[in-house]
Amino acid sequence: MVVYAGAPIGICYEVGLNIRGQPDDTRTEAQKASMRRLLEELHQRYPRAIIIGHDDLNPLKDCPCIKDVVHEYADLQPE
């Protein structure tokens, strides 16, 4: 999720479950590259926006199954 001036832009990553049905980061390299390109484009348009995961809003929620969105995209966070 990208949040700019209190207005969120939701980005949905579908699936995210391992073969046991548990939350896991199952993104392929192509999916990761595509997500990064999208976030880079949004960062160009909204350089003061923060990038967070659903679990940053609700720590009880496992979704999105990316372990640490803020850290993964630290280079795209506002200064």
How is this structure best described in words?
There is one protein chain. Strands 2-1-3 form a 3-stranded antiparallel β-sheet, with no helix packed on it. Strand 1 and strand 2 form a beta hairpin. The two termini are 18 Å apart. 32% of the residues lie in helices and 10% in strands. The protein is of the alpha+beta class. It has 3 helices and 3 strands; from the N terminus they run E-E-H-E-H-H.
Distance between the termini: 18 Å
Output the helix-strand order.
Answer: EEHEHH
Shape assignment: globular
Low-confidence regions: none
The strand line-up of the biggest sheet is 2-1-3
The chain-level structural class is: alpha+beta
Number of helices: 3
Rg, alpha carbons: 13 Å
The helix content, as a percent range, equals 25-40%
Q: Total strand count, please?
A: 3
Tell me what portion of residues adopts beta-strand conformation. Answer: 5-15%
Mean pLDDT: 85
* Biggest β-sheet strands, sense, barrel: 3 strands, antiparallel
